[in-house]
Design goal:
The complex is a heterodimer of chains A (116) and B (111). Chain A has 116 residues and is an all-beta fold. Chain A contains no helices and 11 strands. Chain A has strands spanning 5-7, 10-13, 19-24, 31-37, 44-50, 53-56, 65-69, 75-79, 88-95, 106-107, 111-115. Chain B has 111 residues and is mainly β. Chain B is 0% helix and 57% strand. Chain B contains no helices and 11 strands. In chain B, the strands form 2 sheets. In chain B, strands 2, 4, 5, 9, 10 and 11 form a 6-stranded mixed β-sheet that branches. Chain B has a 5-stranded antiparallel β-sheet with strand order 1-3-8-7-6, with no helix packed on it. Classes of the chains: A mainly beta (116), B mainly beta (111). Chain A binds chain B through residues 31, 33, 35, 41-45, 48, 50, 55-56, 58, 91, 95, 98, 103-110, and chain B through 2, 32, 40-44, 47, 87, 89, 95-104.
């Protein structure tokens, strides 16, 4: 499809285990964003990539969270030693670069993470 | 730093109008509006750049007052399909591409 895709759609893991969440942005979108949305809450910014570099990592909640992007395309968000408070829907979005003047963000369907 | 939206929730009958406000304590470069239906991803509505511009999209329009660091979303002659949670995303001056989303406004349109 032409939209942002994320995998897995659902992930149940035990406390203390590591998880990897994947995002495939829209082809040609140079900017990629990760957000977290807890039940009934708003969108919490985690990290932003422009190409392969991350100019803004300020939203990562702790050093257990990390993200990378390779080839200017796919991104992986890794959570180490998961805690119950990590349970949330993790949303990825992508956009064209600001220079195009058309940089609205397109969101993927999200990964629902449940830590038991 | 998180912008505040008001009201938190609103219930309308089809055909009625609504206004959703978004206020920031920081100087803004742009404001983005999104709608999220239950269990779905947010969907983009519009971007407003500093300059006090107003935009429209069908019967949904928005304004941005950069001096007041406020944006308002106007929904006229509401339809059932307008139901959902509306979020404003604010980009601080400095054009960082980073959006800080507001607290959300739940809109329910009833027949």
């Amino acid at each position: 499809g032409a939209g942002v895709s994320q995998s897995p759609s659902n992930k149940v893991t035990e406390k203390g285990k590591d998880v990897e969440l994947r995002c495939d942005p829209i082809s040609g979108h140079t900017a990629l964003y990760w957000y977290r949305q807890s039940l009934g809450q708003g969108l919490e910014f985690l990290i932003y990539f422009q190409g392969n570099s991350a100019p803004d990592k300020s939203g990562l909640p702790s050093d257990r969270f990390s993200a990378e992007r390779t080839g200017g395309s796919v991104s992986t968000l890794t959570i180490q030693r998961t805690q119950q408070e990590d349970s949330a829907v993790y949303l990825c979005a992508s956009s064209l670069s600001r220079g195009t003047g058309n940089y609205e963000q397109y969101f993927g369907p999200g990964t629902r993470l449940t830590v038991t | 730093q998180q912008p505040v939206q008001s009201p938190q929730a609103v219930i309308l009958r089809e055909g009625e109008d609504a206004v959703i406000n978004c206020s920031s304590s920081k100087a803004l470069y742009s404001v983005h509006w999104y709608r999220q239906k239950h269990g779905e991803a947010p969907v983009f509505l519009m971007i407003l750049l500093k300059g006090g511009e107003q935009k429209g999209h069908d019967k949904i329009s928005a304004s941005f007052n950069e001096k007041k660091q406020q944006s308002s979303l106007y929904l006229t002659a509401s339809q059932l399909s307008y139901s959902g949670t509306y979020f404003c995303g604010t980009e601080m001056s400095g054009a960082t591409n980073k959006l800080i989303f507001g607290t959300g406004t739940l809109l329910a349109v009833q027949p």
